[in-house]
TrEMBL record:
Name the record gives this protein: Electron transfer DM13
Residue ranges of every copy of the DM13 domain listed in the record: 32-129
Entry keyword NAD: no
Pfam families per UniProt: DM13
Membrane-crossing residue ranges in chain numbering: none
Keywords assigned by UniProt, alphabetized: Signal
Domain of life (superkingdom): Bacteria
Signal sequence annotation: 1-25
Length: 129
């Protein structure tokens, strides 16, 4: 027989999973804060979001970057992954959105990168929670 305490704890756990599950399903909903790389100043936040069946990396309104010749946005898992490149950085500051390439499993990714493709160096990275 289940005690009242076990029932309450189980009910609370199931409710917490129901609330958190959809927001984090497939890795979406995770955010990270940028730190600069290679002597570049990169700050602000990035977030993974799902819209209309597609996944996007959204750089938030607090995003700031000091500039470089060929900055691109990408994902990574404990390091930059060139197969996830989403295109040229649209602006050195402010909110912007990039569609994740079809076939990229974001649940395995734990970083958003600002990457200089011309010189093959990192410019900033946001570790996703």
């Amino acid at each position: 027989m289940t005690s009242r305490r076990q029932f309450i704890v189980s009910s609370v756990s199931v409710a917490a999973l129901a609330i958190a599950g959809p927001a984090l399903a497939g890795g979406e909903g995770r955010t990270g804060k940028f730190t600069g790389q290679s002597n570049h100043v990169t700050s602000g936040h990035a977030k993974l979001v799902r819209k209309n069946g597609k996944t996007f990396v959204e750089l938030q309104s607090d995003f700031q970057f000091d500039g470089a010749p060929d900055p691109k946005v990408a994902l990574g898992k404990n390091g930059f992954d060139s197969s996830t490149l989403m295109g040229k950085l649209l602006s050195n500051s402010g909110a912007q959105s990039y569609e994740v390439p079809t076939g990229v499993d974001v649940s395995g990714m734990n970083e958003v990168w600002i990457w200089c493709e011309q010189y093959n160096v990192p410019l900033g990275v946001a570790k996703l929670n």
